[in-house]
Specification:
Elements: E1 8-9, E2 12-20, E3 24-31, E4 37-43, H1 51-65, E5 75-81, E6 84-90, E7 94-96, H2 97-101, H3 108-127, E8 130-131, E9 140-143, E10 148-150, E11 157-158, H4 179-182, H5 189-205, H6 215-224, H7 230-233, H8 239-248, H9 260-273, H10 310-324, H11 328-338, H12 342-350, H13 356-367
Antiparallel strand pairs: 1-2, 2-3, 3-4, 4-6, 5-6, 7-9, 8-11, 9-10
C-alpha cells in the first residue's frame, strides 16, 4: 500500500516520500503527539506478499533494535498497520555518499573521514555479530554537519538468526560484492571490509575497481581480476592508503585485515602521515559506470573440466541461470568438481531452486 501526504498511519502523518530501494519505501512522517519528524520505512507493495521479504524486513527491525551507535541510523519503533509492518527511524538530513560522489571537489581527508566513520560503525556492529552485507555509497548518508550514518540493514546477517540466503544465491549489490559473496557462500566481517574497500577505491579514483559489460563480467572480475592500485590511477593517493585499500580487496578473506578495527587503524596512520601540501587537492571526479544488466541466461566462455564436455556443463548452467541468475555458472562449476555424473549434477543443482514447480521444470529439462 502506498501512502499520500496528509494521510495518517498509526500515530504518524505522512509528509512525503523520501525514496525507495529494492525492499522498502521510505517516507518522511511527523508524530501526531510529539510533532517530531521521523523516517518511516515499509515494504514495497510488490514485496509485501513475499514471505521471505517480509521475514527479512522483520529481521531488519530486530537487528536495528539491538544497535545503538552514532554512525548507524537509529530505530525508534515499529508497528503493524493493517497487517503491514512499518519501522520508524531517525530522520537523517543530508545526502547519500552516492550523491556526494557526483559532486566535484571531494578531498583525501574527506574520504578518509567518511571511511573511518563507516568503519567505526562496523567495529560496533561486527562486535555484536552483525554483518551488513550491502555496504555501498547509496547506503551511506552524510549529514549536514559531516556525521556519517550507515543505513539499510535489510539483508544483514546476525549470529543469533539462521541465514535466509541459500547456498548459490546472491544477496547484495554486485559492484560492491566480495568474491565469497559472489560465489553465494556464507560471509563474515571480512566481506563487509571488501565492500568498504570498493567504496573507498571509488572515492579515491573516481571509478570502480571492478567493472564489466555485463553482470557476469563483474562477477568474474571480483573472483579473478586484481584491480590497478589506487595510487596508479590517481597519483595524489598516498601509497599507505593505496596499500590498505588493496589489502581489503584481496580475493581470499584470510589475506585481508582480520577486523574493521585493523583497517581503521591503517587509514588513521595513513592520514597522519599524509602530505599536507596535497591533502586539500580534489581527487578525480566520479565517473558513473552503470553496467549493462544481463538476462537470466548468461553467455559463457568455454572452459574445460576433466571428464566432461564443456558444452554439456554450459547447458546445465544456462538452464539453471533461468531460476537463480548468473551465479549458476559457479554452482555448476563447483558441482562438476565434486562429481562426474551429469544426473547427479542436475539433482544437486536443482536443490538451489527454491520453488518446487521450478525445480521440477529444471529436472524435466534434463530429459528433453
Amino acid at each position: 500500500m502506498a501512502f499520500e501526504p496528509g494521510q495518517t498511519v498509526g500515530d504518524y502523518e505522512i509528509i512525503g516520500k523520501l525514496g525507495a530501494g529494492g525492499l522498502g519505501v521510505v517516507y518522511e512522517v511527523r508524530h501526531i503527539i510529539s510533532q517530531r519528524r521521523e523516517a518511516m520505512k515499509i515494504l514495497r507493495p510488490d514485496q509485501s506478499d513475499t514471505a521471505e521479504m517480509a521475514e527479512r524486513f522483520r529481521r531488519e527491525v530486530q537487528t536495528l533494535a539491538a544497535l545503538n551507535h552514532v554512525n548507524i541510523a537509529t530505530l525508534h519503533t515499529a508497528f503493524y498497520n493493517q497487517n503491514q509492518l512499518a519501522m520508524v527511524m531517525e530522520l537523517v538530513h543530508g545526502q547519500t555518499l552516492r550523491d556526494r560522489q557526483l559532486e566535484a571537489g571531494i578531498t583525501l581527508p574527506q574520504v578518509l573521514d567518511i571511511a573511518s566513520q563507516v568503519l567505526e560503525a562496523l567495529v560496533y556492529a561486527h562486535g555484536l555479530g552483525v554483518v551488513h552485507r550491502d555496504i555501498k555509497p547509496s547506503n551511506i548518508m552524510i549529514t549536514s554537519n559531516g556525521v556519517v550514518k550507515l543505513l539499510d540493514f535489510g539483508i544483514a546477517r546476525t549470529e543469533q538468526a539462521s541465514d535466509l540466503t541459500k547456498t548459490g544465491h546472491l544477496v547484495g549489490s554486485l559492484s560492491y560484492m566480495s568474491p565469497e559473496q559472489v560465489r553465494g557462500e556464507r560471509v563474515g566481517a571480512c566481506s563487509d571490509l571488501y565492500s568498504v574497500g570498493v567504496t573507498v577505491y571509488e572515492l579515491l579514483t573516481g571509478r570502480l575497481p571492478i567493472t564489466g559489460a555485463s553482470n557476469y563480467d563483474i562477477m568474474v572480475g571480483h573472483m579473478e581480476r586484481v584491480p590497478m592500485p589506487p595510487h596508479k590511477v590517481a597519483p595524489s593517493v598516498p601509497l599507505a592508503v593505496s596499500a590498505a585499500v588493496m589489502r581489503v580487496l584481496e580475493k581470499d578473506p584470510v589475506a585481508r585485515f582480520s577486523a574493521a578495527s585493523e583497517f581503521l587503524t591503517a587509514l588513521r596512520i595513513a592520514a597522519q602521515a599524509q602530505d599536507t601540501t596535497t591533502a586539500s587537492a580534489p581527487l578525480p571526479r566520479h565517473v558513473a559506470s552503470v553496467p549493462r544488466s544481463s538476462s537470466g541466461s548468461v553467455e559463457q566462455k568455454p572452459h574445460s573440466e576433466s571428464g566432461f564436455q564443456t558444452l554439456s556443463l554450459d547447458e546445465v548452467s544456462r538452464k539453471l541461470a533461468i531460476y537463480i541468475g548468473p551465479v549458476a555458472k559457479f554452482v555448476v562449476r563447483k558441482l562438476a568438481e565434486q562429481s562426474q555424473d551429469m544426473d547427479t549434477i542436475y539433482r544437486e543443482a536443482a536443490k538451489q531452486i527454491t520453488s518446487e514447480s521450478d525445480r521440477a521444470a529444471f529436472l524435466r529439462s534434463r530429459r528433453q
